[in-house]
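Priority: medium. Attachment 1 of 2:
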């Protein structure tokens, strides 16, 4: 009886071992193709000529500067925006487009041609750029003299900061004004003062950066928002609300079908024609029967039968009616006429 139990137990153990071997073989059969097909991939990373932080700082400063412009006085008027004085400014296209957006949001009818508008808005840029300030508490990077460096010893002592802070600031100083180009009168001006947007990066004992500033929502670390001990919020939240609709706000505008936009009272051609000044009439001080001083007399050809009484000269003023000089016979030059007058005077 005991032998039978032992034999049955041995058979079951052998079967379990065979089953495990089969399962292990199946797993290896499935893993071998996967292992042979394992590879690696690479991702190409590059940097733009301007960092993203710099571009965000400048564009944020531009947005805040334009948001402070109040174009409500030009609502419902036909306006041409002149961007020629923004040429050469950093991010010129962004400034021009943002001002046009602000004008449209204020209810202005923008015209593509200057002659089609009554009012002109001109803009200029006093400053568009960034500043940077670095503060280090620790040992700065130091270059050792080549004569004091031994073989195998690095020639540069790396930076060892206990605390480090970098402060970047974007500055935009924009101004605009409007005038009536028909009358030449000033209508509105925005004023000019610098607007800033800032970013602060802080490292403490090599840990960081902790990012704060107007371009961030609170304090960020490793791409995540954290609670800063000082509890300082963004300065953008402390600014007074901008007049009108912000250029960074989302909005939808209803379009009025069949709307006829306003136009200038008249084109410049019609305006000049309606207010044209007729030239002053010539009122001689000498009677018309006498030669007029300061005028060259008009010579009458010999064959002409027109009366010369109106001009104050007779047909024999410059000699005989028949002459061999074709210039005199056809009303020649003033110099020849003057010589003949002198000649006649001598003969008389």
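Attachment 2 of 2:
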């Amino acid at each position: 009886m005991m032998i039978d139990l032992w034999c049955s137990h041995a058979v079951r153990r052998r079967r379990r071992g065979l089953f495990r071997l089969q399962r292990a073989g199946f797993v290896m059969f499935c893993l071998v193709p996967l292992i042979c097909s394992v590879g690696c991939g690479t991702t190409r990373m590059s940097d733009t000529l301007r960092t993203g932080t710099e571009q965000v700082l400048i564009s944020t400063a531009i947005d805040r500067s334009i948001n402070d412009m109040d174009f409500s006085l030009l609502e419902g008027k036909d306006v041409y925006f002149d961007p020629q004085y923004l040429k050469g400014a950093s991010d010129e296209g962004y400034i021009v487009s943002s001002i046009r957006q602000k004008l449209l949001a204020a209810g202005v009818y923008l015209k593509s041609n200057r002659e089609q508008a009554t009012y002109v808005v001109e803009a200029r840029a006093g400053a568009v750029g960034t500043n940077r300030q670095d503060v280090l508490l620790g040992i700065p990077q130091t270059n050792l003299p080549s004569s004091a460096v031994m073989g195998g010893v690095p020639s540069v002592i790396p930076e060892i900061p206990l605390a480090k802070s970098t402060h970047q600031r974007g500055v935009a100083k924009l101004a605009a004004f409007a005038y009536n180009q028909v009358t030449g009168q000033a209508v509105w001006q925005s004023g000019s003062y610098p607007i800033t947007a800032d970013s602060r990066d802080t490292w403490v004992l090599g840990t960081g950066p902790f990012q704060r500033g107007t371009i961030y929502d609170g304090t960020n670390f490793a791409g995540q928002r954290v609670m800063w001990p000082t509890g300082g919020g963004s300065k953008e939240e402390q600014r007074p609300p901008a007049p009108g609709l912000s250029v960074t706000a989302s909005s939808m505008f209803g379009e009025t079908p069949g709307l006829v936009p306003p136009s200038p009272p008249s084109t410049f051609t019609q305006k000049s024609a309606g207010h044209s000044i007729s030239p002053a009439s010539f009122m001689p001080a000498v009677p018309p029967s006498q030669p007029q001083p300061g005028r060259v007399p008009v010579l009458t050809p010999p064959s002409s039968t027109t009366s010369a009484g109106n001009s104050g000269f007779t047909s024999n003023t410059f000699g005989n009616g028949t002459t061999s000089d074709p210039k005199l016979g056809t009303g020649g030059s003033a110099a020849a006429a003057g010589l003949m007058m002198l000649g006649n005077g001598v003969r008389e």
